[in-house]
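Hello everyone,

My group is preparing for a crystallization screen and wants a predicted model to guide construct design. The compound we'll soak is magnesium ion. Before spending weeks at the bench, it would help to have a computed complex in hand. I've included the protein sequence and the ligand's SMILES below. Output in structure-token form would be ideal because that's what our pipeline reads.
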Amino acid sequence: MQLRTIRATQYVTALREGGSLPAIVAADDFGMYVVKFRGAGQGPLALVAELVAGEIGRALGLNVPELVFVEVDAALGRNEPDQEIRELLKASIGLNLALDYLPGSTMFDHAAGDKADAKTASLAVWFDAFVMNVDRTPRNANLLVWHRELYFIDHGAAIYVHHDWESMPQRAESPFRESKNHVLLPWATQLEEADATARRLITADKLAEILEAVPGQWLTRDNDGISAAEKRAVYLDFFTRRLAASAIFVKEAADARHQLV
Ligand SMILES: Nc1ncnc2c1ncn2[C@@H]1O[C@H](COP(=O)(O)OP(=O)(O)OP(=O)(O)O)[C@@H](O)[C@H]1O
Ligand SMILES: [Mg+2]
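Reply:
Good plan to model first. Here are the tokens for the complex, ready for your pipeline.
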């Protein structure tokens, strides 16, 4: 697995609703992208989560906009009038992560009549429990509707256990209580089937391949003396154990769904 690398040529607009101040940029391949900046308050581990969780979602067959590396150079922020944005761009010079921008997409809204099919909803509930993503609630769905298909975005807060390396191994086999707030839980009638599909698609090789794509500097930013290779091994161990124990979080989600209906 190899992510493309593009260069940002123009800062188009800030996405103010995003807590990390992501932005739409134009790039040297003439595409438009949503950039997640390395210098944002959430730190580089948010980019690690965005990449790792996003590619796991894609491996499950869910739609995730293409993820690319984006080079930001000093020229990008030079004429930016907003000081907060100028500082963010300055702190993000170098490698960042971006998603293909989906023009005209809208946020999934049940009240507006948006629906999901059982297979997609079940895989989505499985996915978010596996990567521990709490940001898929009706109020903050992070689910775009584009050309009548659902696209999964914003995985920066996933794998939140990686903010504490020491305890990561012990937390792999935990349920995921937040499944009860999942925006697609009402349609997730095929959790057992999703579990079987996911266990077939998410292999140790696939996980290793995804982790290999993570830039080493994003993993070693906190200067704790642990190498990028060691950290990749911690993630691999975490996900391998979590996969083996998927019955725990699948049961949690199924129980939450029974409470719901
Ligand atoms: N690929 C995309 N195509 C179109 N719009 C997008 C895309 N990615 C993000 N957006 C829009 O930008 C907003 C902010 O993006 P995102 O949710 O990823 O940022 P964030 O800073 O992590 O947000 P949050 O406030 O949820 O923490 C989204 O709610 C969505 O409206
Ligand atoms: Mg969001």
